Known about the structure:
27% of the residues lie in helices and 26% in strands. The protein is of the alpha+beta class. It has two domains: 2-67, no CATH class; 74-185, Immunoglobulins (Immunoglobulin-like, Sandwich), CATH 2.60.40.10. The protein is elongated.
Amino acid sequence: MRVVRGSLALSLAVSLLLSAASTAGAAPIRPPANGLNAALCAIVRFAEAQVMNPAVLAQLRAVEAQVCPPRPVVGITLTQPAAGATIPQDDQSTGCTYDHARGYGYRLSFSWTAPSVQVASYEVILQHGTSPAALDETVTTTSFNATECNSFVTDNNRTGWHWQVNGLNSAQQVVATSEQRAISFGTCRLIDGRTPCFAPS
């Protein structure tokens, strides 16, 4: 019965929080005292770990942003590729079938060390400048490999890339993150060694 009462109390508290968030609109929730802030924050974060519904989780995160201090973010150390590394293109070692316009393709191999906090998964991001992420994968190990057969990066986009890793808890919140490490791609040249890889029209 204690468990039931505890669950009902939690459900009621969460319902009240979500109701306050929805009626407040753009105005932030401002509890009157730091002690109440801490209590509400503890309830919200506990609820986030239990909730499975994405819509409810999103609402709880919005409430958390208003009543909780920022979560401490612990560092993840990137290992490979090294800073400034160049990813080979038209790479025969990928094992891909050769395409007479696009070449073999390229291989991405990322690795990093686990942070000091517990994480449920890792988000691996590869991005060119401020463009949308070209790669955004979630894994549960400290490495990620991808082979992109018959894919290539054009000469004018070879530089300006970076990769990073975020550590996520069970509520898919970032609790650890890495630096943004710069990498680039090598030139993609076809079998004659001169012709750039291209996408046939």
